[in-house]
Amino acid sequence: MNSQELDRLLSRYKEAYGQVPDWAEVVSQIMPDLLGPWIEIRSKVIADGALSRKVKELILLGINLVRRYPSGVETHMRGALDAGASKEEIMEVIATSILSSAAPAMYNGPRALKEELKKRKA
């Protein structure tokens, strides 16, 4: 890949992510041929289809919130707003993510306690 192609590709990353992500800069220096396929897949997946881009961005926002991935949260928050999501829609995603993040602790904590207490009675 020549430098002009690489610059064009990094511009697409800047457009998609709002900046050239640090990981993309590293890959561009070491193995730039990986960047093209990734941005193509991303572009195809995020485009309007059976689900709108807005819905996909909201889903990705929720996933990144639950996974605690700050740069993904930033990217998909911006993407959701750019795709027309309202602040109310985004807040519902945030609230749903809180529920999803808390659910494992709510369910698994008491179960683990119950099992441990059973073992100690034996």
Short synopsis of the structure:
By secondary structure, the protein is mostly helical. Helix content is 81%, strand content 0%.
Lay out the secondary structure:
Layout: H1 3-17, H2 22-30, H3 35-46, H4 53-67, H5 70-82, H6 87-121
Number of folding domains? 2
Q: Tell me, what's the shape?
A: elongated
Approximate helicity band:
over 70%
Order of helices and strands: HHHHHH
CA distance, first residue to last residue:
67 Å
The helix/strand class is mainly alpha
Instruction: Please tell me how large the radius of gyration is.
Output: 20 Å
User: Low-confidence runs (pLDDT<50, min 5 residues)?
Assistant: none
Residues in β-strands, percent: under 5%
Description:
The chain is mainly α. It has helices spanning 3-17, 22-30, 35-46, 53-67, 70-82, 87-121. It is elongated.
Keywords:
about 120 residues; mainly alpha; 2 domains; about 80% helix; about 0% strand; elongated
